Amino acid sequence: MNYELRARRFATLRLRRIMNYELRSMMKNIFTFGLLALGCMMVGCSNDYYYEHADDGRPEYEYLTTIPAEQFADQAVGYGWRRTDTRIINEEGYADDYEYHEASGLFPSHYFFTADSVTQFTYNGTDSIRRRFTYTYDERTNMLRSDAWKYMQLTKLSASKMCMVEKFYEDDRHVFFAEATYERILPFDMYDYWNNYKPLNP
Fold first, then answer.
1. Cα of 83 vs its chain's centroid, Å
2. What DSSP character marks residue 83?
3. Alpha-carbon dihedral of residues 146, 176, 155, 133, nearest 10 degrees?
4. What tens digit of pLDDT does each residue of 62-83 get?
5. Residue of 8 and 90 predicted with greater confidence
6. Cα angle for residues 192, 195, 196 (degrees, 5° grid)
7. What is the pLDDT of residues 27-48, one digit of tens each?
8. Measured CA angle at 94 (ends 83, 162), to 5 deg
């Protein structure tokens, strides 16, 4: 009798574990689908966008609108952002067809924002590292200012996607701007970033 009772308890516990696993998997799929649906509501960063070059060489997005600080705090802060695409803005004002990091062999950076700091995740050629910087957001110009990057202007933002204009130095003489696309990192995946990137500062 005791053996049968233990067997039933074991079977019940095993069934609960299987059900919990299936429930977690289902909730993750629902969350992923929800973010994808939100992303479809927003036009992604595209090389169809046109940029007018200012006198100092900065590309100015033709349809740039103000993104309020409240929106940035609500949709960007508290989340990780993975760079998925970087395209150089050419002299004609359009983003090139090729992906910059893929063509150059360099590694893109990814970010996690809090209200007053940003953690940069990158690969330096030998190690996966993360560093924390302070930053500010200027809603008048959509500019993000920090030592983590050289120039970053927000052009579009949704709950699942972020579009930026960024400045790069290929060498001491060659400076260029690029259109960068970021997608929000799922909380389940963000855990891997914190664990797999070596911290260089607290």
1. 5
2. E
3. -10
4. 778 899 999 999 999 999 999 9
5. 90
6. 80
7. 444 444 444 444 444 444 765 5
8. 30
Query: Helix, strand, or coil here: 136?
Result: strand
List Cα–Cα distances, 128 to 76, 104, 109, 124, 169, in angstroms. Answer: 23, 18, 10, 7, 21
Encoding tokens for residue 172? Answer: 């001491």
Listed in sequence order, the residues at least 6 apart from 44 whose beta carbon sits closer than 8 Å to its beta carbon are 161, 163, 181
**Distance between CA atoms of 13 and 101, rounded to whole angstroms?**
49
Determine contact, residues 166/151, Cβ cutoff 8 Å.
yes
Whether pTM > 0.85 for this model: the answer is no
Residue with tokens 């996966």: 128
- Among all chains, which residue has been given the structure tokens 């990091």? 101
170 φ, ψ to 5°?
A: -75, -35
Hey, what are 169's tokens? Answer: 């130095």
Return phi, psi of residue 78, to 5°: 90, 10
Which residues does residue 165 pair with via DSSP β-bridges, in sequence order?
153, 179
